[in-house]
Amino acid sequence: MMFPEVMEGSRTQLPYFRTDEFSEMMLDSERVLKNLLNAGDESKVAFLTASGTGGMEAAVINFFDRFDRLLIVSGGGFGHRFCEICDVHNIPYDAIELKFGEVLTEELLNEYKGFKHTGMLVNLDETSTGQLYDIKLISDFCKSEGMYLVVDAISSFLADPLDMKSDGVDAVILSSQKALSLAPGLSIVVMSDRIYERSKSVHSPSYYLDLSRHVSDQKRGQTPFTPAVGVLLDLNRMLHLIDDIGLREKIMGTAELANYFRSNARTIGLKIPEYPLSNAVTPLLFDGNAYDVFVILREKYGITVTPSGGDLRGKLLRVGHIGNLTKKDYDRLLSALKEVIG
Ligand SMILES: *Cc1c(COP(=O)(O)O)cnc(C)c1O
């Protein structure tokens, strides 16, 4: 659910963007965003007109090439996507394939000690299952192995803590339509100075997604190509809204909603997996009828939760906690779920 305060960009005439006002706003967004991620002044930000996958692909192909070897946590649909991106671009990798329900542990990581991987790709919240990976564990591993760390925080940003400096994260990928609760169409890559320097010696096989082009224009608050102007206007409002509330408070609010829903869901007999969960989403386990529950909730109660695809279609539904939601919304959902499963 979007916040009414930040829906202007989709309601009004959009301004022409090659102007000083637009540039100032973009520089301001960059400053607030770096601050929220503790990215450091010397970090770089690229605003891409693409969905989150465009941000993932941009990060992979600008930072790495066929002379690298990456380690990918492949614990669901989005981890698998990183593998597919590397396949397309002939970038060698090893994938830590997690079975559904399997937790990413230190033992699993340690199997790859000394493999001389150059970088790690991970979706901090693997949104397809809701598993939240342990950033400290991953960060310590990458530091001790001398690896670059690229984090897809598309669904965990604003829901779970992330600090680029203290977690040693070299690049963070964000997208407008998840916790930022904006319209789709914008993805953002925030990168450390060190990984940006590295990208200069990597031949990026893309024109549109060449990050150096974006970083160099963003120095004056501009983008090389026509950006998603409306989404960028809303992004600026949203970033200030978060900044005013405080990042810690924002995350705590999301955690409170998640915990409220989870404890009540267990009370009415719903099953939640045992693995560590992101505050962004609660997965619910069903015995084969998950998709039917999704349809009934939508058609009979007007409530939309997220169904799963592939093997998990009958098994898993996901309930989001990001965006403009309140405990009342969960009360409605819980009473509907109680009727449906009862
Ligand atoms: C939603 C999401 C994406 C991006 O998907 P798009 O459909 O390309 O926007 C990437 N990674 C994660 C973890 C996501 O939740």
Overview of the molecule:
The protein is an alpha/beta fold and 342 residues long. 40% of the residues lie in helices and 15% in strands. It has a seven-stranded mixed beta sheet with strand order 1-9-8-7-4-2-3, with helices on both faces. Strands 10-12-11 form a three-stranded antiparallel beta sheet, with helices on one face. Helix 1 packs across helix 8, helix 2 (52-63) packs across helix 3 (77-88) and helix 9 packs parallel to helix 11 (327-341). It is globular, with a radius of gyration of 20 Å. The mean pLDDT is 96. Residues 51-53, 56, 78, 123, 127, 152, 154-155, 175, 178 line the site of pyridoxal-5'-phosphate (PLP). Pyridoxal-5'-phosphate is lined by residues 51-53, 56, 78, 123, 127, 152, 154-155, 175, 178.
| Portion in strands | 15-25%
User: Any ligands, ions or cofactors bound here, and which?
Assistant: pyridoxal-5'-phosphate
- What is the number of beta strands? 12
The largest sheet, given as strand count, sense and whether it forms a barrel, is: 7 strands, mixed
N-C termini distance? 28 Å
Q: In terms of structural class, how would the helical and strand content be classed?
A: alpha/beta
Counting H and I runs of at least 4 residues, what is the number of helices?
11
Radius of gyration: 20 Å
Strand order of the largest sheet: 1-9-8-7-4-2-3
The mean pLDDT is: 96
- The sequence of SSEs as H and E is HEHEHEHEEEHEEEHHHHEHEEH
Low-pLDDT sequence parts: none
Chart the SSEs and their pairings.
Elements lengths: L19 H18 L6 E6 L2 H12 L6 E5 L2 H12 L4 E5 L8 H5 L8 E5 L1 E2 L4 E2 L2 H11 L2 E5 L18 E5 L10 E6 L1 H7 L11 H8 L10 H17 L1 H21 L13 E5 L4 H12 L4 E2 L8 E5 L6 H15 L1
Parallel strand pairs: 2-3, 2-4, 4-7, 7-8
Antiparallel strand pairs: 1-9, 5-6, 8-9, 10-12, 11-12
The structure holds pyridoxal-5'-phosphate (PLP).
